[in-house]
Amino acid sequence: MTVPGRRSSTFTRLLRHGFTDPAVAERLLGLPEMASVRSDPVLLDALGAVADPDLALRGLVRLVEAQEPTARRRLLDTLVTAKPLRDRLLGVLGASEALGDHLARHPGDWQALVTYEATDLHPGVAEFERGLADATDPVSLRIAYRRCLLSIAARDVCGTTDVAEAAAELADLATATLRAALAIARAAAPADDALCRLAVIAMGKCGGHELNYVSDVDVIFVGEPEEGADESKAMQAATRLASHLMRICSEPTVEGTIWPVDANLRPEGRNGPLVRTLSSHLAYYQRWAKTWEFQALLKARPVAGDPALGEDYIGAVEPLVWQAAERENFVADVQKMRRRVVDNIPAAQIERELKLGPGGLRDVEFAVQLLQLVHGRSDATLRSGSTLEALRALAAGGYVGRADAAQMDSAYRFLRAMEHRIQLYRLRRTHLVPEDEADLRRLGRSLGLRTDPVAELNKEWKRHASVVRRLHEKLFYRPLLDAVAQLAPGETRLSTEAARERLEALGYADPAAALRHLEALSSGVSRKAAIQRTLLPVLLGWFADSADPDAGLLGFRRVSDALGKTPWYLRLLRDEGAAAENLARVLSAGRLAPDLLLRAPEAVALLGDPEGLKPRSRDHLEQEILAAVGRAETAEVAVAVSRGVRRRELFRTAAADLIGSYGTEDSPAEADPGALVDRVGNAVTDLNAATIAGALRAAVREQWGDELPTRFAVIGMGRFGGHEQSYGSDADVLFVHEPREGVDDQEAARAANTVVTEMRRLLQLPTTDPPLLIDADLRPEGKSGPMVRTLASYEAYYRRWSLVWESQALLRAEPMAGDEELGRRFIDLVDPLRYPAEGLGEDAVREIRRLKARMESERMPRGADPTLHTKLGRGGLSDVEWTVQLFQMRHGWAEPGLRTTRTRLALAAAHAAGLIATEDAQILDEAWVLATRVRNGVMLVRGRPGDTFPSDGRELAAVGRYLGYGPGHVGDMLDDYRRVTRRARAVVEELFYGA
Questions:
Q1: What does the DSSP 8-state code read for residue 123?
Q2: Are 586 and 543 in contact (CB under 8 A)?
Q3: Is the pLDDT of residue 342 over 90?
Q4: Is the Cβ–Cβ distance between 150 and 113 less than 8 Å?
């Protein structure tokens, strides 16, 4: 008798055996039907050993209750006396609620677990066919299928089979099921059967002998007419049989479904005919198939229907599979396939994704399949549909390091075991790790983790996923290093030819040169070479992810040669997580950033500093440059230091732009292209302003010491004044001076002109640093006018002679260097010109429109495509800027927000004032940002400015990558550019020309 308030001994024992709800378990054991076994210690021990004791006991009670009295006694007697049945039955009940439901509906099926013969331990297709032999309709097929599934699950959860053997058995059961379904379909339509030969080709995991518990079964149907039959009618008959087979397996019945049969891997996918003849399949694959379709055919295997036709199909397509790596677009396709399909995974689920998430099953499967495609054409031992068998063959052939292959094998088995157990619980198709504590506990216990199942499961899962993430790239690149480094004797080495094939497949245009670079970087036994061998497998993957892997690797070798003896360099790349990836992105994205870096390789340190890529303020830059000028002995030395600072900051800006555009593994690409454009424009403008301030100080100190005889200011114009400069922009300026008190006008003018000449000379001296060209052509009277004027001279000129285009140019005027008060007074002088009271008159508006039309017809370079010219083309920079500037001149006097030198701010102000509709403003802004990004991209890629897209294919692809287009999408980029600018031109026609 139990004392009130104290727990019974049974309750305590149940708790000790792993029950989470001992009270319910005690009540279930107390039911009359369980009387003969409720105190049996063997039963309790067996329940305590399963994944979920509570679930197992509930399932057992339901099964016992469903038996007739005689059958109930036999079940319970067998349960306590036969350990094999006990372990199997309780193991299944403790792991699968769905199979527990099946047993409750079909209480006699427990006897499928009683036999323990050799053939029962490892059944094949023939044994499963016998198990399904009595099925004559969809319902009986489902019952028989689950009975067979019961035995597979029992062997799996008891450890009689490992995860690979269980997956193979599931594929064999699927094969037997497809055959049974086809037999039912044929029996229902004997006339159709008589007209055609039909073969069912398994694809995907079923074809690869590695099926999940619940998965789509991917198939392709091949048909041929029987001798003498009309081909069209035969294909219609074959299609009806195939459709019926799919419905038999997929449609819901009182016994549920088996699994969906998915035929979407067929030629043309769901848009193509369900059944094709063999010749039709071949015609498609030879002419239209994409690389991923050949990748899918790696796993093709005939499983049902006409065996000879199935073998003919495999014999015909197999040579095409192994020629896929020779296809012209293989590299672009491979780079596209290498991108994980995580975009469609909800953000909340990505960390729980076993299949598609980072370090998931798909990473392993893709890596293995890609290596098979590259090397299987010359090595038939790699031609297996099974991921694990192929991985073993790759290791045996030296295509993958043995240790790496062993780690990947272990990780893949663990992740597949997790996937199996998750799906087995409710027999639902899912790849998500559950969040519920009870589900995680059951999952952990089912994998043998008993001490702290949830914590141990999370730890093991993260460890294996981390191994996959780390090895995913090493599988491709580590053997390349081993092939050239001549280390690890006894390891089967990748041949030079195989290494060349792999590098070609990964996008390297000159694999021989790439191998030379790898040998130079990683050979030997020095600590430097050892660190390089650690870094290079990952770096090579990042290079391959770019439009120009060869340039990335060459740049890395040059930087490493320059800094190799510097102790901090390799340590930075090894220990600072972002530094190595940032360097790889910068080196392989184009010419400008690597050229800037190689002139002073120590700037690589910026890439490892979390704050290193943030642009520095103009005040900070001026302070550094003016301090350096003050320490310098000569003007040449002073400006050389200033230009060195400019080069370093240009590299900082370019690196931040590239990394923000590409994104990294830890941070996505910048979602707002306008923010990237503004960041570059502000950073380069501030940098050039500070450099000009330094050159001005140096020129003055050289001849006059601390004070020039005349006040002097540099006024930024054009993109310089608008804070919209690109990497290669000149600095458009006006120079203004005003003699100091007591100084003769001629002496002041001579001093001002001398300073201007010296500044321009110093900033263009031949050095390793990029020059800064100063362009004063927007001054009054242009090239024929004086280079420098006094403020009074400007006033007199603008009062008497100023033309409307000069007023328009002054919209961008902003003081950039020199005397601040003089700069402010110049702005006060020109404000009435650029924002005329009551706005522009109609004559002035007509003149601006006439000038714009003339510029469009006369200044477009001969042969240039007007739909792709970023500056003067349709809907390009000029169109948007002239439209915005017209609004500034017409309404700036009344709308303070329009009084800005910056195009985007003025456009936003015009919209806020109700002058431009929301949609029109968005269209103009999008076009201006895109055109500016293209110009920036061209400069970054080619190392020199350009207003049109590059003609070279690799350079064009690199610009596409900078703009966010993946490999093979150059056409989409050009189409999108034309679409965006065409819409912008339509707005310009209305707002600027008044159309």
A1: -
A2: no
A3: no
A4: yes
